[in-house]
């Protein structure tokens, strides 16, 4: 696949402008970099042309994002992220809507039913993957009675099957972008009812990727533990990776930097083992066994043993001999 890289602007704090009021200052402070970032939001938009399949896919992705997707309805002729300078308008839209992910749909004779998934960092385009939709079934096309829908605030579970997600660099990049897109807010605990859906991604041997959205249905089992079943509710699509663009090395290094404030403090001689858990190491100085004082019982002292042996001999000599 084609690999395209452009000269990025110097990495630093994104230019958010200057606020003249207190409300504006609070809004800019909310968008400023933080040690623990808020949940990521995505912007969904169309290029110059978009087929019905692409528009339905964007609508369904907005449903899956559960309130964390900002849909732009106008067509954007100048948004061409793989061309030099074509990402400028896309970065402007993302910064204005406070989004760090994007999903761009387009359609042309050369690349029909096209989707581009990507990420931003510090206001600049970070990386992206372009896929083509070969087959598509919308959420609204699967007509079922009492069909479950994604709940607001819930978190989907992911299942990636196939060696391609481990060996193919483009599929690995697609997996990371999908996980970022549907990660949502950082939480320390979650209600089990919030885990209401599963996104199944299967990498086929011919390079295709099967994307399915299934609902988690809990049915009665006669015990306290219910039977768990997956029910396909859509959207379901078959994707094929066309192009990918990796992040610039300098930008990737800056993006992977961990702030000092959230780095865990290193504890000496303590390691975390995934099997054994927390393990510690003790250092004991070398011991001189010759100088160790052993505690002895009174009956074990040498003087008492010798006196007892002498008394026993004297008693034996004094006793009469039978003859």
Automatic annotation (TrEMBL):
Domain Brix: 40-250
Record's subcellular location: Nucleus, Nucleolus
Keywords carried by this UniProt record: Nucleus
Transport listed as a keyword: no
Region feature (Disordered): 303-323
Molecular function GO terms recorded: rRNA binding
Family annotation (InterPro entries): Brix (IPR007109), Rpf2 (IPR039770)
Domain of life: Eukaryota
Electron transport listed as a keyword: no
One annotated GO biological process: maturation of LSU-rRNA from tricistronic rRNA transcript (SSU-rRNA, 5.8S rRNA, LSU-rRNA)
GO cellular component annotations of the record: nucleolus
Family statement: Belongs to the RPF2 family.
Protein name: Ribosome production factor 2 homolog
Species the sequence originates in: Picocystis salinarum
Upper lineage: Eukaryota, Viridiplantae, Chlorophyta, Picocystophyceae, Picocystales
């Amino acid at each position: 696949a084609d690999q395209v890289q452009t000269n990025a602007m110097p990495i630093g704090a994104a230019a958010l402008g200057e606020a003249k009021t207190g409300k504006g200052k609070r809004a800019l402070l909310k968008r400023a970099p933080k040690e623990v970032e808020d949940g990521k939001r995505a912007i969904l938009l169309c290029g110059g042309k978009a087929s019905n399949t692409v528009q339905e896919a964007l609508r369904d992705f907005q449903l899956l994002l559960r309130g964390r997707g900002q849909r732009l309805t106008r067509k954007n002729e100048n948004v061409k992220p793989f061309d030099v300078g074509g990402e400028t308008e896309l970065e402007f839209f993302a910064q204005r809507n406070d989004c760090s992910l994007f999903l761009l749909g387009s359609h042309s004779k050369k690349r029909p039913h096209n989707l581009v998934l990507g990420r931003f960092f510090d206001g600049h385009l970070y990386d992206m993957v372009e896929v083509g939709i070969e087959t598509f079934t919308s959420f609204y096309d699967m007509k079922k009675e009492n069909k479950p829908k994604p709940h607001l605030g819930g978190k989907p579970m992911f299942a990636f099957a196939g060696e391609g997600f481990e060996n193919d660099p483009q599929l690995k990049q697609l997996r990371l972008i999908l996980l970022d897109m549907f990660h949502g807010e950082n939480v320390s605990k979650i209600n089990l009812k919030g885990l209401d859906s599963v996104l199944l991604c299967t990498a086929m041997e011919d390079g295709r990727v099967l994307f399915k959205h299934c609902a988690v249905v809990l049915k009665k089992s006669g015990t306290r533990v219910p039977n768990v079943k997956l029910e396909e509710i859509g959207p379901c699509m078959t994707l094929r990776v066309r192009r990918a663009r990796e992040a610039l090395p300098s930008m990737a290094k800056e993006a992977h930097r961990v702030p000092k404030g959230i780095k865990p403090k290193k504890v000496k001689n303590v390691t975390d083992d995934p099997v054994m858990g927390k393990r510690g190491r003790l250092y004991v100085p070398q011991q001189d066994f010759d100088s160790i004082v052993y505690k002895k019982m009174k009956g074990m002292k040498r003087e008492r043993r010798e006196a007892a042996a002498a008394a026993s001999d004297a008693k034996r000599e004094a006793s009469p001999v039978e003859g």
